[in-house]
Design brief:
Shape: globular
Strand order of the largest sheet: 1-2-3
Order of helices and strands: EEEHHEHEH
Strand content: 25-35%
Number of domains: 1
Mean pLDDT: 87
Length: 106
Amino acid sequence: MDFCHCKGDWDGPIGAISVKSANNNVLQVATCLHPKETADAYTYLMSNALKNPEMAAFLNKPTTTIITDKHKGSESAVPRVLQLAEHLKCAEHILKNAGITGPSDC
């Protein structure tokens, strides 16, 4: 789950929740536009995905892992909205924030 900042006609953050299926396929299951990447934006994205009963049953269970980029908004929103899911940070973002850019830096 993440937000990216678009420019041009979209001009703002677009959020997405993608999942990896048992068949190793990546599926986009939720998308939203929001004025800013905040805890409210993450809450809005997850809350709308949870309106679908099948998605709610899938996302909010102990065997589901939510991976985000360590944005402050996701850090507060994910545990509040998806209380049963495990929340992890993306290793690529953690390494970049530590100044590690590749295997030679480890």
